[in-house]
Design brief:
Blueprint lengths: L2 H6 L2 H10 L3 E2 L11 E7 L3 E11 H4 L1 E9 L8 E9 L3 E9 L7 H10 L6 E2 L4 H6 L5 E4 L4 H21 L8 H15 L4 H8 L4 H12 L5
């Protein structure tokens, strides 16, 4: 097994176990139609939806991909947690991580995130597309090219530490601007769906375009109705 896969693949189980400390798995209609790892969680106290997706294509395509999002309740003005990582056997080709603002630009979690990532060094920083610049914070991690054990461990530590901080910090469901929060969470999903890569990737892995669009629209970034 490659060093990259050996170090990064166990991260999915770590994330799920931490989410399960505060939430429980929630069956989502239709998600079982897709034959890869997807877990969706709900927490009465902490969040309305958390999703951990793993596309393990190490044997067929020499790739391992994970997507994690956590959306606060619609009366909680906390930011949205996002973490995505794309690995080949040789390197982490992309890692993207952010606490993305909804309506409270001064939320303490945004300050905590900024302080945690400001001094980190990444091998290859990535330029964000316009859709990403519209929703991600200026402190977002967007990097790639990580190959060494030290670099891989930095990715793991950042993800785990920030997830702990995030799960401790969210859950203040006292905000009265529910409609505004719903609008901003939906805006986040709408802009994410402008990213052509997930659909192209799923089609390359054997799905039809219609199946890929169904997954992205209804399970990867479902909007609040």
């Amino acid at each position: 097994m490659s060093l990259v896969f050996e170090k990064i693949a166990p991260l999915a189980d770590i994330i799920c176990k931490k989410i399960e400390l505060v939430g429980s798995e929630k069956p989502e209609p239709g998600i079982g139609n897709f034959d890869w790892f997807n877990k969706v969680y709900y927490s009465f106290r902490k969040f309305r939806r958390a999703h951990v997706e793993v596309l393990d294509r190490r044997e067929k395509n020499n790739m391992w991909i994970m997507h994690v999002t956590i959306f606060p309740h619609t009366d909680d003005d906390s930011p949205i947690f996002g973490f995505d990582i794309v690995c080949t056997g040789n390197k982490v080709s992309g890692v993207f991580h952010d606490f993305s603002v909804t309506i409270n630009t001064n939320h303490f979690l945004l300050e905590v995130f900024a302080s945690k990532v400001k001094n980190l060094k990444w091998k290859k920083e990535r330029e964000l597309p316009d859709w990403g610049k519209a929703i991600f914070s200026q402190n977002m991690i967007a990097a790639g090219g990580s190959t060494s054990e030290e670099e891989l461990q930095q990715i793991i530590n950042v993800c785990v530490d920030n997830l702990d901080l995030y799960l401790r910090g969210i859950g203040d469901t006292s905000c009265k601007n529910k409609e505004d929060i719903v609008s901003m969470q939906n805006r986040y999903c709408s802009y994410q769906k402008q990213n052509p890569y997930p659909i192209k990737m799923l089609v390359n892995f054997g799905l039809t375009k219609e199946q890929a669009e169904d997954f992205v629209n209804n399970h990867l970034f479902p909007e609040v109705k």
